[in-house]
Design goal:
The chain is α/β, with parallel strands linked by helices. The chain has 3 domains: about 5-110 and about 240-305, FAD/NAD(P)-binding domain (3-Layer(bba) Sandwich), CATH 3.50.50; about 125-240, FAD/NAD(P)-binding domain (3-Layer(bba) Sandwich); about 330-400, no CATH class. The chain is built from 11 helices and 24 strands. The strands form 7 sheets. Strands 3-2-1-7-19 form a 5-stranded parallel β-sheet. α1 packs parallel to α9. Bound molecules: flavin-adenine dinucleotide (FAD). Flavin-adenine dinucleotide (FAD) binds near residues 10, 37, 49, 290 and 292.
Length: about 400
């Protein structure tokens, strides 16, 4: 008998899961109801910035014709799930339908965090997550005028670069001592700072937004920083981190992690054996991950499990990343925060033009991971060496 899988969220990871299970389920055991809050099928959110500079919604689409026309897939756009009933095994949509499930996957992603700053509701203040957000930014952007991005992490720098490509003059405000504080140390950050400044971004670290002031007509006009500086500002983007979208956990009586997220085991299953959570909303052993690679791993695990194939635990996530700033190379690979006493740290650097730091396992000498900034070797070349002893020409690979 055909079973129904309801997937809540048609983002990158929800789509991957349905797509994988479609191909594994050769005997047609499953039909899929996908409840999507957004009005568009899944798209490549990682490439969203390219939408600001000319790529179209179609260019970024993940769901191909075969997926959209598959009679087993019932994709309901602009149809968010608002509640669910575990006893009845149904999900309630915003349109008032109760959709029954045999298995339920929550793939609701994250929402951008907007710090509680006075004035944050002014017009032309945006977040940076969806096509709709970027449509708003594109409409509000004005060439030659100043903009402010709140947050100097990966996303904030990417957003600032997008604004500068729209002709605006972006300031980036970061409360930590340097940009990308989660991934970089001070040495790598100096290289990034220099490259970003050359691209026209004004980075202001060790300060934060104290308040946002609006013009009489309601749109943002200026931003006051905690160090007393006042920046003129015609458009503002919050890129100050994300929070897992775990609202449905309450309705379903599922546990949430200490820092949010739907708690799942290392196979992405909740305490209810019919309910799973994958992607950014899932707290695997208490931790959520804001990157796509760990989410895809989760999707593949659950798809295999539902298809009756043997599975491995999702294990240690791949958290390597690369900054997408034209002309500024910054990347991490492998582990960059090894447990104390486990690693030897070696730095190769040349003034502020290039910097590479690697971590070697202290007893075996094998490569654990590293940080690259500037004109260094690439993540693609160095990543595959993780877990092995570095080759004789290692230094040349790091600083070619
Ligand atoms: C600009 C940008 C650049 C990025 N660059 C990178 C990168 O270089 N590398 C990287 O690894 N990651 C990157 N990321 C992060 C990456 O996009 C996410 O990790 C990935 O999209 C997570 O997939 P997901 O399916 O868990 O969540 P999402 O892709 O956010 O999808 C979740 C979907 O669920 C929907 N939803 C939520 N609640 C409900 C509900 N109740 N009912 C129905 N639908 C619901 C949401 O509307 C959304 O469409 C980037 C993100 C952004 C915004």
């Amino acid at each position: 008998m055909t079973r129904t899988l309801v997937v809540v969220g048609h983002g990158m990871v929800g789509h991957r899961l349905v797509d994988r299970l479609r191909s594994l389920d050769t005997s047609g055991d499953w039909r899929f109801v996908v409840l999507a809050e957004e009005a568009h099928p899944a798209y490549n959110r990682m490439a969203l910035s390219s939408y600001l500079t000319g790529r179209t919604r179609n260019d970024l689409a993940l769901a191909d014709r075969a997926f959209l026309d598959d009679p087993r897939v019932d994709l309901r756009l602009a149809c968010p799930a608002v509640s669910a009933d575990r006893g009845a095994r149904t999900v309630l949509t915003a349109h008032g339908e109760h959709v029954p499930y045999d298995a339920l996957v929550l793939a609701t992603g994250s929402r951008p965090f907007v710090p509680p700053v006075p004035g944050r509701d002014a017009g032309h203040c945006f977040v940076y997550r969806t096509f709709d957000d970027l449509d708003g930014i594109r409409r509000a952007a004005r060439r030659g005028l100043p903009a402010v991005v709140v947050g100097g992490g990966l996303l904030g720098l990417e957003a600032a670069h997008g604004l500068s490509r729209l002709g605006m003059r972006p300031h980036v405000v970061e409360s930590a001592p340097h940009p990308m504080p989660t991934q970089l140390d001070a040495g790598a950050a100096r290289v990034l700072h220099r490259g970003a400044t050359e691209l026209g971004l004004d980075l202001r670290c060790r300060t934060a937004v104290a308040s946002i002031e609006a013009h009489p007509e309601g749109t943002v006009g200026a931003v006051r920083l905690t160090d007393g500086t006042v920046l003129d500002c015609a458009l503002l983007v919050f890129a100050a981190g994300v929070r897992p979208r775990d609202e449905l956990a309450a309705a379903l009586g599922l546990e949430r992690g200490d820092r949010g997220g739907i708690v799942v085991d290392e196979y992405c299953r909740t305490t209810d054996e019919r309910i799973w959570a994958v992607g950014e909303c899932a707290a695997v052993q208490g931790r959520c991950h804001g990157l796509v690679a760990p989410g895809y791993r989760m999707a593949d695990t659950v798809a295999r499990r539902l298809a009756g194939h043997p599975v491995e635990a999702v294990g240690v996530p791949d958290t390597s990343t690369e900054l997408k700033l034209l002309g500024v190379h910054v990347a991490t690979f492998g582990t960059t925060d090894p447990a104390a006493g486990r690693a030897v740290e070696i730095v190769f650097a040349e003034d502020t033009t290039r910097y590479a730091k690697v971590f070697l396992q202290h007893d075996t000498g094998s490569l654990l991971g590293g940080v690259l900034a500037g004109d260094t070797g690439s993540r693609a070349e160095l990543g595959p060496l993780v877990g092995r002893r570095p080759p004789a020409h290692f230094e040349r690979l790091l600083l070619p």
